């Protein structure tokens, strides 16, 4: 059984009586240990698909199945729990809170957990160390480079230890060196047994993953396995957040 399935998903927007079809019968399967790139030009439906997979958009036809559970008719509380516990989002624009230092930016994602304040601090520090920002924890976003900001965003996405990371154009605002570093971090996340899905228009980003799916004008025009999915490590060998 796949970790995540997209089953015959259709999505339209309406302007008056005019219908604009954005997704036209999307079928995909995803597993742990994959780094899948959804490749296509702007306006092709990539971000819409990610919003549906991530539980941000509930107005569609078809179904999303996670761990064998259909989300199509799930109640709002179930959808909220799915998004909160299983999905981590990374955005091109970073979406950091400017008046907070980066440690506090990561801790924001832990406020809904049952961890004590001390444990939240410990976990946030461990995540920032993992992405190479141990020496920058007290800095604010405006003191960081674009690549460093994106690494903060990755740490924040990992805070709740989700199974799925959705990255929407994660390197779109970065230079070549920072792009390479961010892709290597995303690769390490997939190697840790998580599913990484990256939306991109960049062939360079797509070539870094294990599989690429070509999506254009709301239709899948093909997909290719670039390399085998990474073997899912035993629990004791994974990078642990069990603090």
From TrEMBL:
Protein keywords: Amino-acid transport, ATP-binding, Nucleotide-binding, Transport
GO terms of biological process kind: amino acid transport
Domain of life: Bacteria
SMART domains (alphabetical): AAA (SM00382)
ABC transporter domain segment(s): 4-242
One Pfam family it belongs to: ABC_tran
One MF term in the entry's GO annotations: transmembrane transporter activity
Gene Ontology CC terms: membrane protein complex
Ranges that cross the membrane: none
InterPro entries from the UniProt entry: AAA+_ATPase, ABC_transporter-like_ATP-bd, ABC_transporter-like_CS, MacB-like_ATP-bd, P-loop_NTPase
UniProt similarity note: Belongs to the ABC transporter superfamily.
Protein name: Macrolide export ATP-binding/permease protein MacB
């Amino acid at each position: 059984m796949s970790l995540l399935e997209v089953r015959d998903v259709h999505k339209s927007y309406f302007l008056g009586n005019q219908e604009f079809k954005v997704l036209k019968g999307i079928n995909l399967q995803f597993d742990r240990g994959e780094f899948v790139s959804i490749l296509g030009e702007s306006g092709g439906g990539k971000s819409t698909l990610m919003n549906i997979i991530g539980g941000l958009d509930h107005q569609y036809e078809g179904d999303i199945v996670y761990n064998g559970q259909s989300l199509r008719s799930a109640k709002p509380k179930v959808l909220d729990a799915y998004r909160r516990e299983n999905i981590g989002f990374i955005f091109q624009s970073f979406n950091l809170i400017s008046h907070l230092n980066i440690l506090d930016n990561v801790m924001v994602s832990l406020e809904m957990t049952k961890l004590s304040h001390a444990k939240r601090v410990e976990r946030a520090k461990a995540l920032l160390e993992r992405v190479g920002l141990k020496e920058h924890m007290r800095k604010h976003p405006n003191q960081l480079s674009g690549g460093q900001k994106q690494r903060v965003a990755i740490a924040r996405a990992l805070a709740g230890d989700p199974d799925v990371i959705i990255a929407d154009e994660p390197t779109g605002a970065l230079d070549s060196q920072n792009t390479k570093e961010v892709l290597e971090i995303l690769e390490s996340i997939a190697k840790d047994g998580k599913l990484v899905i990256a939306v991109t228009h960049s062939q360079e980003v797509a070539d870094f993953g294990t599989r690429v799916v070509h999506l254009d004008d709301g239709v899948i025009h093909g997909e290719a396995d670039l390399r085998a999915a990474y073997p899912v490590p035993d629990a004791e060998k994974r990078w642990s957040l069990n603090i």
